């Protein structure tokens, strides 16, 4: 199966994977208004190109947290990638290295730290701060020991959003897979993730949801700073006020995200939130964004509105389902080519 743009990926992936898995990846919170608007919001932003500019040579290189990358694009943390392909997160890590862009490993990974780290490249780790801080610290230390270069703290999930598709499908992780990073946490709590059940539907997530700390506040970001020397990025910032607080608490970067529309429904699209966050903190701190990116013009719009790097999630999963490593490679090649073409047609040979 071949594809020529990222918009085609969802329907193509649907034909190649079990519906329970597809719906877990595809779905959003509640009525999925925010999930859909993340994509549609880009269509409301129009471009004003300049002409008669020499665009024979285009430079897309930039830096993120001091690391040089080839494009201002990264692979966002997405859960349970071995449901998409037997190699899962290993494909994402390997392809990210090949393209010289950052890859973020999810706490809900079906691969171990060691597996993913073996591929090298620029790798970050996405963290949910657990109720038991000693367990959280252990996970952070494992990320450090395996060479991960930053901790991406998800801050928009004191509780899980309502995932109606998961409830209908009674989602559960296929029995041959494990949540490798959480598994050690589960064992310390005498829990077997494969046997956790929840009559409301999304059974596998009950243990994880129980570990989410609903009392998490800004003081816990200071606590995290005290246990690691790695840069700290807050993922899930959705307002100017919180962006200012993040800067005041000394984080190294802000990630504008609404969790792919999977948490609180009817919040604004991330591209609509981005300008006010940029206005609030200026260029004093790096700002990243994700949500609804499906083409090179989308990447360009994010950068023009102040983002330093643009992360993609579902397109990685869909292209992995379609054709494994080759699929993810093709998807990134298309996105990068479209981005270069956008720069040329906009009369912008460099970032």
List key phrases describing it:
11% strand; two-stranded antiparallel ribbon; eight-stranded parallel beta sheet; alpha/beta
Provide an overview of this structure.
This protein is α/β, with parallel strands linked by helices. The protein has 14 helices and 10 strands. Strands 3-10-9-8-7-6-5-4 form an 8-stranded parallel beta sheet. Helix 11 (240-248) links the parallel strand 7 (232-237) and strand 8. Helix 4 packs parallel to helix 14 (314-345) and helix 11 crosses helix 12. The longest helix has 32 residues, at 314-345. It is globular and about 65 Å long.
Quick summary of this structure?
With 351 residues, the protein is α/β, with parallel strands linked by helices. The chain contains 14 helices and ten strands. The radius of gyration is 19 Å and the shape is globular.
Query: Which strand order spans the largest sheet, edge to edge or round the barrel?
Result: 3-10-9-8-7-6-5-4
Tell me the strand percentage band.
5-15%
Tally of extended strands? 10
Binned, the helix content reads 40-55%
The tally of helices reads 14
The run of helices and strands is: HHHEEEHEHEHEHHHHEHEHEHEH
Give the distance, in angstroms, between the N- and C-terminal Cα atoms. 34 Å
Give the overall form: globular
Structural class: alpha/beta
Biggest pleated-sheet summary: 8 strands, parallel
Any low-confidence stretches, pLDDT <50, length ≥5?
Answer: 196-204
Cα-atom Rg, whole angstroms?
19 Å
Overall mean pLDDT score?
Answer: 93
